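Final report, Chapter 2: Outcomes

The project's central promise was a pipeline that accepts a single protein chain and returns its three-dimensional structure in a standardized token representation, suitable for archiving and comparison. That pipeline is now operational. To close this chapter, we reproduce one record exactly as it appears in the project archive, with the input sequence first and the structure output second.
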Amino acid sequence: MTPSTITPTGPVLRRGDARWFFGLLAVVRATGEDTGGAYTLLEVTAPPGLEAPPHVHHVEDEGFLVLEGTVSITIGDEPVEAGPGDFVNGPRDVPHSFRVGPEGARMIWVLTPSGFEHLVAAASAPAARLTVPPPD
């Protein structure tokens, strides 16, 4: 079964939905419904120092386009320092992690094929405002 054929249960995200997702603000810019299952596109705003621990996507490739700020991204064993205009590709089945720099960061995440929006829907809450979530 491909991600585009998964029938989500629970919330369904649409273009423009804003979510608080693991300490960051994620705004949905395109879903599998919008792209014929090709990709999911998120605009992400992360606070200073936010870290995503090492994890693996087995279904989708993940690309990070840094718009503002800096992000240290490790793909496999290779660390990359990324700033505005830099793109880092995280292939599926390769562990990756990231740490946001001291000024925070704004990024575009593209995940192909689509389906990641279902995880975001299940593991997030609607953003009460278009800011990073308050610390908990």
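Archive annotation: The first strand starts at residue 18 and ends at 21.
This record, like all others produced under the grant, will remain available to the consortium after the project formally closes.
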